[in-house]
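Structure representation:
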Amino acid sequence: MPKNTLAPGFVKFTYSTVFSGITMQHVQRLSINPAVWSGQTTTLTPKSGAAILWSTALTAYADVWDDLFHTSSNLIGAELWRQDTPSSDPVYQGTWPLARAGVSASATVFAGQGTWTLFGSDDSIMKVTLIESLSAPNQKTAYGALGAGIVKSFFDYFLSNGCVFWTRGNAYCASAGFFWTKTNDKVRGKRFAV
């Protein structure tokens, strides 16, 4: 499979953040390794190899996601998409309503963007980006320099045997790179336009 593709499938997460009383929705797409396509009963293959229902896999992701967001933020739900080849159109498979609120009392960072960089066993890359979570902009820390905490725990989820998400080269994450943050200019512009 060519690098930088969402094929053979992906999950599209929708989540919302609140800043100064104004709610904004965001989208995140992560590549998956499907075991059996079957709409709402599709199973995914985690790194461990034992297929699990996609809804169970997404609940495990939500368990680490919610630590990174203020209680006013909400992981609304997820859509499952099948894309047989990099050039084919994605085909909708189902929806899972996660409805998970963030659990942190720490403030949402206005227009903040945090990116976790990971590498697959084939050296392909995965960048997991979250908008308006808890991390202040203009930081860059290598995985090995992180102490215990929510940023490292998020990395550790993607490195775990239970993770169902792939790099854009269709490999499981084998190593972690950097966590870096910045101000997302597009989100900042939308917030000022309101």
Notes: The mean pLDDT is 93. The longest strand covers residues 9-19. Residues 54-65 form the longest helix (12 residues).
